[in-house]
Amino acid sequence: MQTSSLSQRSTKATELNAKASPDFAAKLAESKALLQRAAAEFSPITQASSLGAEDVVITHLINSLQLDVAVFVLETGALHTETLALLERSQAHSKAPIHVYRPQHESVIQFVRDKGQDAMYQSIALRKECCGIRKMEPLARALAGQRAWITGLRQEQSSARADVPLQDDSEVATKNLSKFNPLAKWTWGDVWHYIALNHVDYNPLHDQFFPSVGCAPCTRAISLGEEFRAGRWWWEDEAAKECGLHVKK
Ligand code: SF4
């Protein structure tokens, strides 16, 4: 269920997508300045990486600016082999440390035993329960003690993300946690322009028309003209399409 026939096709994502906005240089300068300020003023601070295109750009920026920022990856136990291979390569080559957080083994075993391997397709509640075990609980551990985190959210990604700010302090009062979104204003073309220009190692799933990288059972390739997030939880309504990582309570 996780792939469509489109995934059999392969085109270099850099060739297909790299197209800088007219104001790309200004956006890049703004992103760099934001990252430098965040690293200087918010310590400890960490980057959440799904190993998707936006996140490899941010890790590349962190490394090139030599910022004191660690990176974490939620290894849900359901990632594509391509993503796991990129994780290994990233750990070998990144100067910034890349920490891996995995779900509690017992919780995963019990969920699969009680609800089934494909429970996420049965209802939104079960899908969210799976995300809770495989993503939200490890995320809480990854963010424990942090003053801020950095994400690859972009305004263009979906209508739910259209208002994503560069700095989000809405959870400072409740969690003492700021969120920085240095690529908030970037287009998909900007992301791929940066990747092509800097020869950034990226997830080959993007060459198979996966714009968004997630767990294998819940991510598929998209067709021309489909919404950017159409490949995530495609059997659900648009409004339900967040795993909880970026949903405010
Ligand atoms: S994205 Fe799918 S497989 Fe991954 S944690 Fe959520 S429901 Fe489970």
CATH architecture: 3-Layer(aba) Sandwich
Alpha-carbon distance between the termini? 31 Å
Content of β-strand: 5-15%
Overall outline: globular
Class, according to the CATH hierarchy? Answer: Alpha Beta
Please give the order of strands in the largest beta sheet.
Answer: 3-2-1-4-6-5
Largest sheet: 6 strands, mixed
**Sequence stretches where pLDDT stays below 50 over 5 or more residues:** 1-8
Number of strands: 6
**Any idea what the CATH superfamily is called?**
HUPs
Question: Whole-number radius of gyration?
Answer: 17 Å
Count of discrete alpha- or pi-helical segments spanning 4 or more residues:
8
The CATH topology comes to: Rossmann fold
Helix content: 25-40%
| Average pLDDT, all residues | 91
List of distinct ligands in this structure: iron/sulfur cluster
Secondary-structure content class: alpha/beta
Protein model, in words:
The chain is an alpha/beta fold and 249 residues long. The protein has 8 helices and 6 strands. It has a 6-stranded mixed beta sheet. Helix 3 crosses helix 8. The protein is globular, with a radius of gyration of 17 Å. The structure holds iron/sulfur cluster. The site of iron/sulfur cluster (SF4) has 13 residues, from helix 6. Iron/sulfur cluster is lined by residues 76, 78, 120, 127, 130-131, 134-135, 214-215, 217-218, 243.
